[in-house]
Structures are given as C-alpha cells and as structure tokens.
Amino acid sequence: MIDRQALCEKIRQLYPDIGQCGIDVDVVYDEAHKSWVVELKKGRYELKTFLEDTDADQCMLGRQCVSLGIEIAQLRGNIERMQADERGRV
Question: Residue 32 has what pLDDT?
Fold first, then answer.
C-alpha cells in the first residue's frame, strides 16, 4: 500500500505551485471505495476527487501520472472558477 505522505509529496512535486498559491493538498485512503481521496483546499473552498489504487501505484512508480495530473488540474481550475464567480457576485 502507498504511504500517504509519499503520495502527498508526489502531488506537490508534480504541482509545486499548489502550496505557493495558497492551495493545500491532502490525501486520505477511503477503505469503502478502495481508492485515495485527494483534497484541495484554498481558503474556505474545498474540493475532493478519488484516485484509484492502480493509478496511484503507477504514479508512485514513476510510470504514469497522467490521471493524477488531470484530476489535480481540474480541481485547481474549479477552485479558481468558484473564486472568480464569487468575486463577480460581490
């Protein structure tokens, strides 16, 4: 099984700007779904996605991180859109 901290660090390596732009990342293993829950938080915004075991394994082995990268990019984009929408309503 993948180490939680190692997976978090791998995500930070892929997206070093996550911490710099104020987005925090965390991962937790969900036994019920047999997958990793990747959480991105920025201020009061929080988004989650599931990362299947096989995808996480491939990424940690350095073979393939495409699905992880796509998921993280989508989550980041969603947070940025939510913030922009909120600013437009004020």
Answer: 94
